[in-house]
Amino acid sequence: DCSMWDSENLPVIVEKQMHPQRVTVWCGFWAEGIIGSFFFENAAGQAITVNGAHYHDMIIQFFVPKLQDMDVDDMWFQ
Does residue 1 have a pLDDT over 60? Predict the structure, then answer.
C-alpha cells in the first residue's frame, strides 16, 4: 500500500501495476551454436507460466523441427 498526503483533498488517482509484465523465454545452446529463442506466450502474446504441457508443446512444435533442419543424426540429447 502507498498513501499520499496533501494539505488539500484533491481527487487524484495514482495507478500502479502490481505485477509488472514479464517474459518467459527458452533457448538451447551447444558447441555448434544456439537453438531459439522461443517465447512462451498465449494467443494474445502474453507471457505464460511454463508447465509440463507447455514445455512438451515447445519441444514437439519448436525444438524437434529445428533439430530436423540440422545435421544432428549422431547427437545425444538429455
Answer: no
Spatial CB neighbours of 57, under 8 Å, sequence gap ≥ 6: none
Number of helices (H), then strands (E), belonging to the chain: the values are 2, 2
Beta strands of the chain (E only): which ranges? 25-30, 33-39
Confidence class for position 43, pLDDT limits 50, 70, 90: very high
Task: Please identify which residue in the block is written with the cell numbers 525444438.
Answer: 63
Q: What pTM was computed for the model? A: 0.62
Which residues constitute the domain of residue 42? 24-69
Domain count, the chain: 1
